[in-house]
Design goal:
By secondary structure, the chain is an alpha/beta fold. It folds into 2 domains: 48 residues, no CATH class; 172 residues, Vaccinia Virus protein VP39 (Rossmann fold, 3-Layer(aba) Sandwich). It is 29% helix and 23% strand. It contains 7 helices and 7 strands; from the N terminus they run αααβαβαββαβαββ. The chain has a 7-stranded mixed beta sheet. The longest helix has 14 residues. The chain is globular, with a radius of gyration of 18 Å. The termini are far apart.
Length: 235
């Protein structure tokens, strides 16, 4: 007999802590995403990774550069419910966004019914061949830190391969703190793991510990990479 849902949805992070270890122990490092989003869609939990605004460090980076995506292609890795992808599309990019969770993609499409973004269910560990070096801008925000190693290094390499000639990769991630021990996931990134995106002829341009807007002590890695210097000149 199926247990009834609680009167109030379970916090999605509590559910993540419960189900993710089961998948990891079974050797499936990504399967828990679909179960977690499905729980949110059903109302059993609050909606995972739920925001309707772009990540503040992405928006800050784009505004500083007056980013113009005219005649350029972009892809958002692990797009979730689509806030970052919609922002990038508004900047003029022909935008593709993907997530391994089919439920997340369905919700993103429902939330943005008139969107120009191409939302697709796809596996970062097995990306389509036609995506290799196909995008002028690649956005990776907190996806890799949700993966153990392995397959983290494979995920990093696959993201780097998406960047087109003269293209840019932006990586935003939590910072690993050796003095803190918390049950994974996530696994915040060490500096060397961020630097590892500089592969397949990508060059590291900037690597900073950027303060989250509106906070005093909350910081994230923000790294920018380019394929083939000089970097592109945005309109």
């Amino acid at each position: 007999m199926t247990e009834p849902f609680p009167s109030e949805p379970i916090d999605w992070e509590e559910e993540e802590d419960r189900i993710a270890p089961r998948y990891l122990e079974a050797g499936d490092p990504t399967g828990w995403f679909e179960e977690l989003y499905a729980a949110g869609a059903s109302g059993r939990t609050t909606m995972p990774f739920d925001r309707d605004q772009p990540h503040p460090l992405l928006a800050q980076w784009a505004q500083t550069r007056r980013l113009d995506g005219s005649c350029r292609r972009a892809i958002v890795v692990g797009c979730g419910l689509g806030a970052d992808a919609e922002y990038i599309a508004r900047l003029g990019f022909d935008t593709t966004a993907f997530d391994i969770s089919e439920t997340a993609i369905e919700i993103a499409r429902q939330r943005h019914p008139d969107s120009p973004v191409a939302y697709l269910a796809a596996d970062l560990l097995n990306t389509p061949h036609e995506w290799i070096r196909a995008f002028d801008l690649v956005i990776e925000i907190i996806t890799v830190q949700a993966l153990p190693d392995p397959p983290r290094q494979q995920a990093i390499a696959n993201i780097s391969r998406l960047v087109a000639d003269q293209g840019t990769l932006l990586v935003i991630a939590a910072i690993h703190d050796e003095n803190r021990s918390e049950p994974p996931p996530p696994w915040p990134l060490r500096r060397d793991e961020v630097e590892a995106f500089a592969t397949d002829a990508l060059s590291l341009v900037t690597l900073e510990t950027a303060a989250m807007p509106g906070t005093l002590d909350s910081k994230r890695w923000r790294a920018q990479f380019h394929r083939n210097e000089p970097p592109p000149k945005y309109c």
